[in-house]
Amino acid sequence: MSDTCDVAIVGGGPAGLSAAVELKRQGVARVVVLERFGRAGGIPRHCGHPPFGMREFRRVLSGPAYARRLVATAEEAGVEIRTDHTVTAVRSGGVLELATTQGAMTLTARRVLIATGNRERTRAQRLAPGLRPVGVMNTAALQSFVYEEGRKPFLRPVIVGSEMVALSALLTCMRHGMRPVALVETRERVQTRRLFMALAALLRVPVLTGAELLSIEGRTRVEGLRLRRNDGTETMLACDGIVFSGRFTPEATVARASGLALDAGSLGPEIDAGGRSSDPHVFVAGNVLHPVETAGVCWAEGRRVAGVIARELAAETGETTEPASRAGAAVRPGEGLRYVVPQRISGATELNIRAEGAARGRLVLRDATGRELVVKTLRAYPEQPIRLRVPALDAAALSGDLHLGLERDD
Q1: Cα–Cα distance measured from residue 264 to residue 354, given in angstroms and rounded to the nearest whole number
Q2: Alpha helix locations (H) across 38-184?
Q3: Within the chain, what is the greatest distance between any pair of CA atoms?
Q4: Do the Cβ atoms of 130 and 217 come closer than 8 Å?
Q5: Which are the contacts of 363, defined by CB distance < 8 A and separation ≥ 6?
Q6: Do the strands 2-10 and 103-114 form a parallel or antiparallel pair, or are they unpaired?
Q7: CA-to-CA distance for 9 and 305, rounded, in angstroms?
Q8: What are the helix (H) ranges across 77-110?
Q9: Which of 120, 208, 257, 407 could bridge to 138 as Cys pair (CB 3.0-4.6 Å)?
Q10: By CB neighbour count within 10 A (0-12 exposed, 13-18 middle, 19+ buried), where does 396 fall?
Q11: Is the predicted pLDDT of residue 217 greater than 60, yes or no?
Q12: Residues 6+ apart with CB under 8 A from 365
């Protein structure tokens, strides 16, 4: 079975749904959102705590209420949302291959937007040693148990990780009668603002940094987590569950299967400032590009890229239907920088950057001749999203690769 639409959006989270609404607002006739799960709304569906929605709806909402509002807004705008539709690949010419409960299908779109988000790295990807008892999961699974199924998977877990999502896991546990034994970070310092980690202290949950995971103990259920502290001593934390939080990675399965160029730093698709991928029919937005940003940031990004798509479709005529290719000069991140998004720029834009760990110093964008174009004084904690506003550049600057460097003070 095959059908057609103007724009197909892969992923029904904040970026995908906001893009769909904006496309309809700008007059795009048929917009289809393809969501692999039974309900759209993305990760906020099972984040029962606030704050969501201030940027989008001017009010503070819980995650599930925010997700419902996104879906309702899209449906009211005339967006077609198809749940239980898994996109396996996007082929040349905007042909999407689908796996559905009714069997294999295809959908042909004038443009495709991939907004598949990101996910936490699994225990296997972290190479965590030990047995495989019941009670080991990530934050998303924990919150799905609690908010969607109304169940407590354990009572005294250890939370591994110290990014913002670890605090989400901590709050979920505390609000639902589970008392975490500790937050454990394998790196030497916490990966978010130290002020936020004060919450753990207020809740009397110890934060252990520089701890090597030696083994998960327990045959049928988790019984403990064995650690080696940075002073060489070994510790056994008695617990009945382990939550692996953070270490996000793009959910780039569709992009990879579709043959899109991927960035070695972010592990997501390469794009230009308009969100175009290496396939001119395919655009990309949201956390599949830059793990991890807030729902509000992804919502705004979806709207922005939708505007680019809508303008491109409106400019097409019967004689001119070929989409534009990626434009601009390549931006190359230097030592100490993990990635930069977008990877190509041509006009005024904002770069989204991640450093390797905490960073203090100068962030400098140079052209191929070494001329300084933009300079920013930087002080960033690990995993902090770093923004760099770039003005419109002259033709000389755009004639070769641009180089983004970090000159450290520390």
Answers
A1: 13
A2: 54-57, 63-76, 139-143, 149, 164-175
A3: 72
A4: yes
A5: 353, 375, 376, 377, 378, 386, 388, 404, 405, 406, 407
A6: parallel
A7: 12
A8: none
A9: 120
A10: exposed
A11: yes
A12: 331, 351, 372, 373, 374, 375, 388, 390, 402, 403, 404, 405
Select the CATH number that applies to the domain covering 2-119+248-315 from these four: 3.20.20.380, 3.20.20.140, 3.50.50.60, 3.40.50.12160.
Answer: 3.50.50.60
pLDDT 10s digits, 138-170: 999 999 999 888 999 999 999 999 998 999 999
Which residue ranges does the chain devote to CATH 3.50.50.60? 2-119+248-315, 122-244
Please state the pTM of the whole predicted model: 0.93
CB of 214 within 8 A of CB of 220? no
Domain at 122-244, CATH class: alpha beta
Pairing of strands 136-138, 241-244: parallel
pLDDT, one tens digit per residue, over 304-318 is 999 999 999 999 866
Distance CA 12, CA 33 (A): 6
The residue with tokens 């959102």 is: 33
**Which positions ≥6 away from 124 have C-beta within 8 Å?**
none
Least confident of 120-129, 269-278, 334-343: 120-129
Which CATH architecture does the domain made up of 329-408 adopt?
Sandwich (2.60)
Mean of the pLDDT values across residues 283-294?
95
Provide DSSP, 187-249: SSS-SS-HHHHHHHHHTT--EE-S-EEEEEE-SSB--EEEEE-TTS-EEEEE-SEEEE---EE
- Pairing of the two strands 80-82 and 234-238: unpaired
pLDDT at 204: 93
Distances (CA, A) of 200 to 73, 161, 184: 36, 13, 11
